[in-house]
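Quick check before the chapter quiz. The format below is the same one you will see on the exam, so make sure you can read both the input and the output lines.
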Amino acid sequence: MKLPEMFPVQSSNVASVGYNDATQTVFVQFLNGTIYIYKGVTKFEFENLRTAPSVGSYLHRNFKNVYPYERIS
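Here is the expected output.
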């Protein structure tokens, strides 16, 4: 799977995030190198994640157990 443009974020756990408009998929790369995708996410919600004061906390509160996700690497 080809990654979209990835945006570095300030986080103790997350390295970068990206978004695919066509598929409404968020890509999250963690500092340990693993990449997860979250499906069915609006661009608005992605921007909220990307600009959150705490990306890891926002991801945990608003993405996990809300959107279907899978580890892709």
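If your answer matched, good. The mean pLDDT is 97.
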